[in-house]
Design goal:
Keywords: DNA-binding, Transcription, Transcription regulation. The protein has 340 residues and is α/β, with parallel strands linked by helices. The chain is built from 13 helices and twelve strands. Strand 6, helix 9 and strand 7 (220-223) form a beta-alpha-beta unit.
């Protein structure tokens, strides 16, 4: 083990000397690993391990006025959709001095505003928030924080600072167009507890079908209950009862789509011959279902990775003109909509 100073706790200077680089290089690598070569990064990381170097968050906070914390606000801790993104955020901050602090807004604007106030009181280095529909109070807090802020899962016209995600309007349009291309014409929509991103996909569905004079409000079945496979079955049952001539259904997520499939099977409705089904997010179960289910694939891990990349760039002093990153989506066609 290399020589240490003072109390025996390794310093950033010790790491630099051990690795044969300058302290500034070590600091740069820890703030943004992409800023140094892979060879140099490996050497510094080896020295950190051998010296058992632990950054002093209090010293860094005193020097910068900011804590080494990236706050992340998500709407739900139980929704599997956010797990991939949280994993990406964790992975991307592994070799940096930053810790991740997670808050659960429970899809509640007041709770989001409350958590933002708590987070900002700790002087975080940056914040990641889900969506582009923050309340006026939350927007004001974020704008006045003077730290990097990334809105994720959606892009819009006026990001607070930076955003990484997709156009849910475009995704909604793509779902309708796919079903029309496959020969479906009487298309329904099922959703549970709408969030703003689901609402935009629903509005795209309405607008597209109205333009074709084929929109029927009886085919839109919504509930305020939390999404689940069982709720998907209930919604599909209601749709069949209200509009039995429906020949396809767009589901707000994959849970609803799987439930819709189960209800069709229970009622002897053949998929896709009599009913087309499409979901959103493309979870693993969509491919495993029989028949397999068409879905919109979103790259949730990539969204988390890019959000952290943007933050690290900003914290490293690299300004960029690219305020928004469109991660796009992919329609994965499977048996449930394959008529042609």
């Amino acid at each position: 083990m290399g020589k240490r100073r003072g109390s025996g706790r390794a310093t950033i200077t010790d790491v630099a000397e051990h690795a044969g680089v300058g302290a500034i290089t070590v600091s740069r690598m820890m703030r943004d690993p992409s800023k140094v070569s892979e060879k140099l990064r490996s050497r510094i990381e080896k020295s950190i391990r051998e010296l058992q170097y632990i950054p002093d968050p209090k010293a860094r906070a005193l020097a910068s006025g900011r804590a080494d914390v990236i706050g992340v606000l998500i709407p739900s801790l139980s929704n599997i959709i956010f797990a991939d993104t949280l994993r990406a955020i964790h992975d991307s901050t592994q070799n940096t001095p930053y810790q991740v602090l997670i808050g659960n807004t429970r899809y509640d604007a007041e709770e989001e505003n409350h958590l933002l106030s708590l987070f900002l009181a700790q002087n975080p280095a940056a914040l990641i928030v889900v969506g582009i529909d923050q309340s006026d109070n939350s927007i004001k807090l974020l704008q006045e924080a003077n730290i990097p802020v990334v809105q994720i899962y959606e892009i819009g016209q006026n990001p607070i600072d930076m955003s990484v995600g997709l156009s849910h309007i475009a995704a909604g349009e793509a779902m309708v167009e796919h079903l029309l291309d496959q020969g479906f014409s009487k298309i329904g929509y099922l959703a549970a507890r709408l969030d703003p991103r689901m609402e935009r996909r629903l509005e795209a569905y309405r607008k597209k079908l109205k333009s074709l004079e084929s929109f029927d409000p009886k085919r839109v079945i919504l509930t305020n209950k939390a999404s689940s496979v069982n709720i998907g079955r209930e919604l599909m049952r209601q749709l069949i009862g209200c509009a039995p001539d429906t020949d396809a259904v767009i589901c707000a997520n994959d849970d609803i789509a799987l439930g819709a499939l189960f209800e069709c099977q229970a009622q002897g409705i053949s998929v896709p011959e009599q009913m087309g089904i499409i979901g959103f997010n493309d979870l693993e179960m969509m491919q495993a279902a029989y028949p397999s289910l068409t879905s919109i694939r979103t790259d949730r891990y990539k969204i988390g990775t890019l959000a952290v990349d943007k933050i690290l760039q900003r914290l490293n002093g690299d300004e960029t003109d690219q305020k928004q990153i469109d991660t796009g989506f992919e329609l994965i066609q499977r048996d449930s909509t394959s008529r042609r």
